[in-house]
Design brief:
Blueprint: H1 6-17, H2 22-28, H3 33-43, H4 60-72, H5 78-87, H6 94-103, H7 119-131, H8 137-141
Helix pairs in contact: 1-3, 5-6
């Protein structure tokens, strides 16, 4: 590996400290991008670069508020979280809110409709299970299961 002139090396490091990107330094100093990158990692490992691209719409505290609202039940849906942020004056889209909640591990799911089981229902089911506990697969093959249903032949009554 070829050694670099100490003057050029100091110039590169000072430009990097001033916040110039590696490509801009390469344009100003006659050294390759990989050499500048190598110097940066060797002499300035703790130098933090600004992340490229658009700044995030939501700040850290706003993200925490969104997460807390969703987890504690204050906002039951994504739309509720979205409306809350809109009321606070945040110009944000519904999809941004949805994507952020997804990134923090909160997935949307439909509430499963289940019949309410009271203590009476649970006792009756348990009693039925205990009475039929000794039946074999052959016994169950002889049982016909049916559901009650209402069928209107001519005109629907709306039910």
């Amino acid at each position: 590996m070829k050694s670099i002139n100490p003057e050029i090396q100091r110039a590169i490091l000072s430009l990097l400290e001033d916040g110039c990107s590696i490509k801009k330094v390469a344009e100003k100093v006659p050294v390759s991008v990989s050499t500048i990158s190598r110097l940066w990692t060797k002499y300035m490992p703790d130098l933090v670069w600004k992340s490229p691209g658009r700044r995030p719409i939501l700040s850290g505290p706003e993200k925490k508020v969104m997460k807390r609202q969703a987890l504690c039940g204050a906002s039951r849906t994504i739309a509720d979280v979205y409306r809350c942020l809109k009321r606070k004056g945040k110009d944000i889209s519904y999809w941004t809110v949805r994507n952020h909640l997804k990134n923090i591990g909160l997935e949307t799911e439909r509430k499963v409709k289940k019949p309410f089981l009271s203590k009476v229902h649970k006792r009756a089911r348990y009693k039925c299970a205990m009475t039929h506990q000794g039946r074999t697969a052959e016994d169950w093959k002889r049982v016909i299961f049916s559901e009650e249903t209402k069928i209107n032949v001519c005109i629907s009554d709306g039910i």
